[in-house]
Every structure is written in structure tokens, then in C-alpha cells.
Amino acid sequence: MRLEGKTAIVTGAGRGLGKGIALKLAQEGASVMICDMVEENAQSVVQEIEASGGKASYQICNVAVLDEVNALFEKTLDAYGKVDILVNNAGINRDSMLHKMSVEQWDQVIAVNLTGTFYMTQAAAKLMREQESGAIINISSASWLGNVGQANYAASKAGVVGLTKTAARELAKKGVTCNAICPGFIETDMTRGVPEKVWDIMVGKIPMGRAGKPSDVANMVAFLASEEADYITGEVINVGGGMVL
Ligand code: CAA
Fold first, then answer.
1. Distance (Å) from CA 155 to ligand 1 centroid
2. pLDDT in tens, 108-142
3. Which of 6, 150, 187, 199 could link 84 by a cystine bridge, Cβ 3.0 to 4.6 Å?
4. For the whole model, what pTM was predicted?
């Protein structure tokens, strides 16, 4: 129970990686605000956490819309009075080869993955500077180094790395950490959407020979959110079975 008494917001927590992260933080004792766009998914994660004795609420929020982000923070403060941990996990992909990518595919991915992470991080930074504590964990991706079919996604996730390192430098004096995790190829609805031949290519690049599980990433999030990681900031940590070495 490393997170007893802490309050966490997890974006995109209705399924996949975000759900795994929310369940783990709750298991470690945090009260978790589940942020998602699909009410049914958010509700079911809250029920799952409550059924195992944890604390959670949900708020429907599109992180790419500033008013909705502000409403999410208001709701969290009303419910729990503070925000100790922010996990920016919400993300989308609109994969296409660069020469065929539409402006809409580019804009949608940048809006959610990068601008959404900026809105959320800025709102958290304001609160955490005041309380002089906090941990921000951004979910980037191994794709930030470039991945065929993902010019938009890779650019957004590389942007998240730059945002993370800047936030880390600015917030360090206030006792607030900001780190990024780069999941490799993790079994989620997002990765299940890739063509079979690409699945084989991706798993073929993993020295451990298998795709990861959401819990592999959630374990790293819980560590970075805990006091054990108080002296770690601005890091970009791969969780990918050796996919990026
Ligand atoms: N590595 C190497 N080669 C790849 C590749 C990859 N990751 N992805 C595609 N290619 C190759 C294909 O094998 C193909 O080669 P050939 O022409 O020799 O057959 C070529 O690139 C073009 O691919 P397609 O024929 O599939 O072209 P398309 O226009 O029909 O589709 C695409 C393009 C939509 C990008 C499709 O290839 C695709 O969906 N690729 C998957 C992209 C991907 O890796 N997404 C990751 C999703 S998971 C995620 O985003 C989470 C995370 O953080 C990693």
C-alpha cells in the first residue's frame, strides 16, 4: 500500500493500459479519478475498484478540450481535496503511411496525445506547485523514436518527452517530479488493431519474444508515483522487454 492517502487522476482509464494503471494505483491505496470518454467503461472500472475495496470516481472528459480538463480538476478537488498523482495516459492513433496521411489524422493525434497532455500537465502543475509535492507520469511510447505508419503518433509522443523534461526542470524546486514511460508493444485494443503481418514484425523486434501486458507498465507507474521515486525526475523509461536498447 505505497499510495495510501494519495489521490490520482488517470486519463484514458476506461480500458487497456489506463485501466491497468488505475487498478494498480487503487490496489496500492490511492483514491483514483477515472477519466475517460466512454461512460460505460469508466463506470465499470470504478465498480471493479470498489468491489476490491478501493476508492474511485469517474468523470467523462476529452483531454483535448480545455473546459473539460478544468471540469475534471474541479470534480477531483471536490471529491478528494487534492491531486498527488497525474497519469497522462489518454492517447489515440490514426496510423497511415506519411505520404497518405490526411491533415485530420495528423491534427486529431496531436490534439489528444500532445495538446491534451499539455492541458492536463499545466492544470496539475498549478496545484502541485502550491502543495509543493506531486508526481506527474506521462505515457509516451517506444514509437517516439520513429515507427512506420506513425508519423503523427511518433511526433506527438516525442513532444510528450520534451514536455516531460521541461516540466521536470521547472517543477523540481517545488518537490514535484515528472517522468515519462515508453511502453514498447503492449497487448491492448490499440495494438490488437494492427495488421497481423505488422504484429509479427513488432513482436519480432522484442528480445523477450512477447508483447507486454498492461500490468508491466502499471508496475512502473506505481513505482514512479510512490515516495520511493522522489529523487527521480525528467527520466524516460522504457518498459518493452528490451524492444529499445
Ligand atoms: N515495421 C516495418 N515495416 C512495416 C511496419 C513496421 N512496423 N508497418 C508496415 N510496414 C511495411 C509493410 O509490411 C509494407 O511493406 P511491403 O510494402 O513490403 O509489404 C509497407 O510497410 C506498407 O504497409 P501496408 O501495406 O500495411 O500499407 P497500408 O497503407 O495498407 O497501411 C499502415 C499502412 C496503416 C501504417 C499499416 O501498415 C499499419 O497499420 N501499420 C501498423 C503501424 C503500427 O505499428 N502501429 C502501432 C499501433 S500500437 C501503438 O500505437 C501503441 C504504441 O505505443 C506502440
1. 16
2. 999 999 999 999 999 999 999 999 999 999 999 99
3. 6
4. 0.97
In a domain, 238, yes or no: no
Whichever domain contains 173, its CATH number is: 3.40.50.720
pLDDT at residue 98 in the model: 98
| Residue 240 resides in a domain | no
> Domain of 152?
7-230
Best mutation site among 17, 95, 143 for ligand 1 pocket (most ligand atoms within 8 Å of CB): 95
Q: In this predicted complex, what is the ipTM?
A: 0.93
In a domain? residue 243: no
- Give the chain's domain count: 1
In the reported structure, the alpha carbon of residue 240 is separated from the centroid of ligand 1 by a whole-number distance in angstroms of 19
Could you read off the pLDDT of 181-195 as tens digits, one per residue? 999 999 998 899 899
**Which member of 58, 80, 119, 153 is catalytic?**
153
C-alpha–C-alpha distance, residues 99 and 183, integer Å: 26
Q: Residue 119 catalytic?
A: no
| Residue list, annotated binding site for NADP(+) | 12-15, 62-63, 89, 153-157, 186
